[in-house]
Write a structure and sequence with these properties.
Number of domains: 1
Order of helices and strands: HEHHEH
Oligomer: single chain
Shape: globular
Structural class: mainly alpha
Number of helices: 4
Number of strands: 2
Strand order of the largest sheet: 1-2
Radius of gyration: 13 Å
Distance between the termini: 24 Å
């Protein structure tokens, strides 16, 4: 186990997630970022932690296309909750639904293991 390599993967995943969330906030009505890149990074960390927690508790993949409609609904809920937890990152109910779709599409275009959710 190479700790340096693992930390590098985590940092890369957070950066890629922040970029995907930034794209989603740009394309999604009802989803705004008022705090810049720092807010996107915090949102990416919160989403990763919520995704990890849901996975540990339910053994369920919270990615938008991970388990069909249930995964999509969970991904939308994760986005909505993140909007409540992260100052400067605002997500409406409809924004969470559309944002989950946009992030799912962005994730499908990203190669490898650096997925957002």
């Amino acid at each position: 186990m190479d700790i340096g390599k693992d930390i590098g993967k985590i940092i890369l995943r957070i950066v890629v997630s922040a970029i995907a969330i930034g794209i989603a906030t740009f394309l999604t009505p009802g989803m705004t970022n008022e705090g810049g890149i720092a807010t996107l990074i915090v949102a990416a960390i919160v989403i990763a932690l919520l995704d990890w927690g849901i996975g540990r508790l339910t053994k369920f993949d919270a990615s938008p296309f991970g388990r069909g409609i249930i995964g999509f609904v969970i991904a939308a809920a994760v986005l909505y909750i993140t909007g409540m937890l992260v100052d400067g990152f605002n997500v409406s109910f409809l924004g969470a639904i559309i944002g989950a779709l946009v992030i799912g599409i962005v994730d499908a275009l990203i190669p490898g293991e650096t997925k957002t959710m």
